[in-house]
User: Fold this.
Amino acid sequence: MEVPYLRQAVDPTTPVRYAYGPDSHRRPGVPQGTIVEDELRTSRAFPGIGHRRWLYVPARYEAADETAIMVFQDGWMYLDPGGEIRAGIVFDNLIARGEMPITIGVFVDPGEPNNRNVEYDAAGDAYVTFLLTEILPPIRGRYRITDDPERWGIAGGSSGGNCAFTAAWLRPDRFRRVLSFLGSFAQMPGGNPYPELIAATGRKPLRVFLQAATRDLNHDAPEHNWFSENLRVAAALAEGGYDLRLVLGDGGHDPNHAGAILPDALRWLWRT
Assistant:
């Protein structure tokens, strides 16, 4: 595959914006999945904290014996058809052409009030336990979702990106396909544990897609550097023999590049 030449910006302060391909737009004749919203008003894991969530059910759901499942953090931002990511539209297009499996999408907003960083940046298992014991059981009771962890994915960006990685790292018996955009490993309490953990731990059965940006937060600083911490995680995964893809963009801490590459990221993540 030959990639077309693209002239790079000379001025490092010039904003870079990536164009969206056809799979990020509605295509004529492609059936649309249905979206259902509900709310979990409190939880056992996070008492007094409520979560909004959206369920994406693909148009071809009835044709599947058992479906794959993929959980997205910062749910509505990733599902919003007028936003930067447009995951529902991308799911419609890729599922219709068989470029990803028939997949139930679960889009969960962080807890309110103000619980995002508590949930997403922690290195412990509270959040993944919350997903597996509170968010997903009612959905699994209504829909035919596979037990095969190779067909369970989890995704997010910024703090939601390192949250997705943490969930899969701790529970590879459930989540094995990981999508992290601009992961905020740099702001995890106590520092980013993963370069050392990955090196010291036997290889886990994970497939990981990482996206990082050369002008992410503190990209030129010696500490709390979002760009370099993503590179450190990627290097440890590469050295550990993981099924890894790292894609670098030339933007900042925003979802534009993630949205532009989401169709290719999902094709790679779900390839057989």
